[in-house]
Each structure stands twice: as structure tokens, then as C-alpha cells.
UniProtKB/TrEMBL annotation:
It comes from the Bacteria. One of its GO terms (molecular function) is transferase activity. Residues 7-248 form the Carbohydrate kinase FGGY N-terminal domain. This is Rhamnulokinase. Its EC number is 2.7.1.-. It is an enzyme of class 2 (transferase). Belongs to the FGGY kinase family. SUPFAM superfamilies: Actin-like ATPase domain (SSF53067). Residues 267-456 form the Carbohydrate kinase FGGY C-terminal domain.
Amino acid sequence: MAKTTDYLALDLGAESGRGMLGRFDGDRLGLEEIHRFPNGPVRMLDTLYWDLPRLFDEMKTAIRMTAAAKASIDAIGVDTWGVDFGLIGRGDTLLGNPVHYRDPRTDGMLDAAFARIPRERIYEITGLQFLPFNTVYQLLALKTAGSPLLDVAETLLMMPDVLGWLLTGERAAERTDSSTTQLLDPRTGEWSDEICSALELPRSILPRLIEPGSELGTLRASVVEEVGLAKTVTVIAPPTHDTASAVVAVPTASATVGADSPPDWCYLSSGTWSLLGVEVPRPVVNEETYRYNFTNEGGVLGTTRLLKNIMGLWLVQESRRTWARAGNDLSYPQLMAMAMSSAPFGPLIDPDDPSFLSHGDMPARIVAFCKKTGQPAPESEGALIRTCLESLALKYRWTIERLESICRTKIKTIHIVGGGSQNTLLCQFAADACGRPVHAGPVEATAIGNILMQALGRKRIGSLQQLRAIVARSFPVTVFEPQNPRAWDDANGRFQELVKS
């Protein structure tokens, strides 16, 4: 009988973080939630920050609880979302609390950057989707504001790398998360001197790059003592960008890694954001990807994730928070039931309209969008949620059709992974709108990908194809077949008039 090995994934999502224990016997993976804790930005004066001290304490609690559960941890891996960073100064000093990407400090920074280096040239170098909160524009905001932090910083670390540094003392940049900065050339695999020079950003603070699955270091002695471990533990850098880890855990056997045949399936990592794309053997940077604002982010084992960032369930989450603040605290199951009973194909929105990006009164913004586009506003909470879900499903269709054109392929299957795969209404809408079967699950794809890439880094798994076969054996999926195509075709005609890139 094969030996079972224990791995701990520390996975920080937009609404919660969790410590997930993976027990791998060489054939199947078992998953257990050890510790879950809230994760959201905190406002101090006029700035939105990560609550980093508390999050680090929660991570140590997860390690402590894992040890108390008699798990013999072979390795630990950390993942979270991209673009956000911390700055480290002399003497291993964290220079301030990291700022959250939804902070408005990057307002106007896209235009400021384009005044120094043409938009087309930035895309030609990086192949990355233009989003106002990309790391490069956060850095430019610091530069423009005259912040002293850039003058005294020794190292910039992306957020999962900051957390890895807090655990180990090692400074390194894992490649999948670094690929979200718009400072990396995906073809050379190196930081772009040209962009740093054009924007007058300090190239010297960008750290060495390491591959997903690499050993970062071992736990600091102080952490080992604090959490009550009998011995130190290795920290592996999984795909530290949470979407990269989630894509690893897509349970498909098709489209062998590195093959030149075009992909016939796509992934949709569904949660606060919807990240929809295909896995390709090399970056795709051309006029078409530029026109439609697609992004090339790092995958594992030399692959590239060609994808689109779509606003996702943030629309629902922020609407729910708005209603709760007004005293109408509706649960997600209640909202989905209300949406299901609402009339179909009412007003539609472009989920990626810039007005929906920041915190605030989301229902009011949706009503304003409807008025601006000459549509009646949703008349109830359920109708508004249905508008969000139907619009998301139609944006998925828009994205898939353009991926098919870019890659000269036909997408046959949509794999939805992550927390949004539990939203059966959205999964069915996605199948209906796109006219393709949806395979939903696993829910904890990010933690699964994190854990199995630790195992791959420790040589217990030999390939990505083998890894995905383990996922398929270990976790069930639910299949949603498309229904009612004509009604969705009609709605898509209206949607095309609203959507922007």
C-alpha cells in the first residue's frame, strides 16, 4: 500500500481564506478543511488595505490546527490573487501595509502610462489585459504621488510571495503571479527593462523568478516554535496565483500539455471574478488578442493561460452587501431562489463596465447602467440578480466565441471550477447561453491544484496529465446540458449591443 503524504494549502480568496489539508496516497487525493477565516480589505483613512497582520496570524493558526490534527505535514503552499504586492526594505522590514487593488489610487494611471509608452507597445511586450489595477499602474501611482516607499524599498514581492517571505524569510517571485504585473515579458520569461525605464520604475526591486512547484525554503524557526511543530517544514511555491492553481485542477484528459493542436475545452474559474480561457503552449500576442483585451498569464510546466478577466460574482456579492447594510440581509440561497423565480431575459448589463469595479451601492449602479442604455431597471432583488447571472452567461459566450476565433478551434466543453461551480443557476445559464455542456467542479480547485503541485514538486507526480487524472478520480463533477437555445440567441443579439472589450 502506497504511503499517504500530507500537504497543507493556505488559500486566500476574496471573501475568505482557508487552510486545506490534502492527503495523497499516490492515486487519489483526500481534502479536509482545517481552518476557514474571513478575508476582506480594511479601510484606514482614505486607503483600502490588506489586513495582513491578521491574515498571517490566521495562517499560523491553520498550521497549528493541522499539527494538532496529528497530520505529518510534508510541505506547505500559499496562493492568493494577483496584482497586489508588498515592499520590503533594509533589515527585512515590511514597508507599510499592502494596498488592496480596489483602492482608487490607480484612477487615471492607464492614461498616465500611455503618455510615457504607447498602449500598443505595452501590450506587445507583456501580452497582458489592460486593467486599471495591474501592478504596474499601482507602482506608477506611488511614483506619481511622490511616495518615499519606492526610494527605500529593496524588494517588491507579490502578495503570495510576501506571505511566503513571512513564513520562510526567502524573497522570490513565483512566475504565475508575477505574470499578472504587466511588468513581465511572457516570451522571454524575464522582467521588462523597457517598461521599467519608460515609467521610471526601479528595476532593481524586482526579485528573482522561480517556477511553480519550486522549493521556496523552510519555515522560520520562530514560526515552527509558535505553531508547535516538532520539526521545520518545507514551503513549496505552488502556482501562487489562485487562478493558475485552479486551472491545474481542471479534471480533463484532453489537450496534452505542449501539443500544438488547438484546445477543444476551456476553463472558467468562477468566484468573485470569472476567469475564462484556454491553456496554450505559448503566449498568443497579436492584433486580435489586443483588440479584445485578452491576457497571457503564466501556467505550469511551460504553459500559458490565454484568458479574459470578467467581473464575476462580485456583482452579486456587492449587491448582497448593499442590501444587508440597509437591513435586508438575504442569504445566497435565498437570492438564487428569487432569481430563478424571476422572469427571464429582462434588462442586461455589460458585467465589465468600469462603474461596477469598486465597492459601493451595486444595485444603484446596475439601475444607472440600465437607464443609460435605455432599458427598464430590474424591479426586485431577484430580478436584479437574474440580470447579473444572465449577463455573465452571455459574456462567457462572447469570450468563448472570440477565443475560438483567436485559436482557430471549436470549444466543445466548458469546465467550471471554484466556488462558483456550486451556483447551479449560473452553471445552467452558462450551458444554455454558450450552447455547450458545462462540467462543474471541483469546488476547491485552487486548493487542490496548490496541493498537487506541491506533490509534483516533491516528485510524487510526474506530469500535468497524471495530476489531472488524479483530480478526475478524486472529485465528482456535475454536468449541465444546454437548453432553450433560441431564447438565448435572441438575448445575445441585445447583449452584443451593450458589451465592450
